[in-house]
Amino acid sequence: MKIKLQVKIIFCIIVSTVLALCITSYTQLNKISEPLQKDIPLAIQEIINKSRVNNIASKVIYLDEIVNHSVHMYTIKKSVKWKQRYYAYKPLLKDEINNLLGSIDKEEKLQIEAIANSSFQLLKLNQKIINNVSSSNSKNGLDILEGEAY
């Protein structure tokens, strides 16, 4: 009987040890998986948002180049196609700037608003240039284009 009792005691010790290891492993696994369930999805969402904002900012830069190039070419060449191109892309640029302003968080807002205001001021100067060149006053348009404010 002593052997039966010893086997039972050893069996209970082994089962208790295995159970304790299982509980400890499960607890540690939960601690490890917590960031996977919370932090990583938040980080992925932040990356997606930043990527979307960067994509819009790239569109703004691209459209800004088209608009400014069109003004330059219209001032130099006085060809109506450049004026038409300017008017075709100007609303797209304004829409993308407003889209960008609506897509940013508070941290970026001041910096992006400053850039947006600069773009809107440049659009006003571009319009003055277009108006001057359209009214056969290319010299004034060219002066604005080459001026310090531009």
Précis, in short:
By secondary structure, this protein is mainly alpha-helical.
Description:
This protein is rod-shaped. The protein has 2 domains: 1-37; 49-146. The mean pLDDT is 87. The chain has helices at residues 2-37, 39-77, 80-103, 106-134, 138-146. It is built from 5 helices and no strands. Helices cover 91% and strands 0% of the residues. The protein is mainly alpha-helical and 150 residues long. The termini are far apart.
Keywords for this entry:
2 domains; 150 residues; 5 helices; mainly alpha; rod-shaped
Ends distance: 102 Å
In total, the number of strands is 0
In terms of structural class, how would the helical and strand content be classed? mainly alpha
The succession of helices and strands, N to C, reads HHHHH
Gyration radius, in Å: 33 Å
Strand content: under 5%
Low-confidence stretches: none
Oligomeric assembly: single chain
Indicate the mean pLDDT. 87
The major β-sheet equals: none
Structural domain tally: 2
Helix content percent band: over 70%
Supply the number of helical segments.
5
Shape: rod-shaped
Strand and helix layout:
Blueprint: H1 2-37, H2 39-77, H3 80-103, H4 106-134, H5 138-146
Helix pairs in contact: 2-3, 2-4, 3-4, 4-5
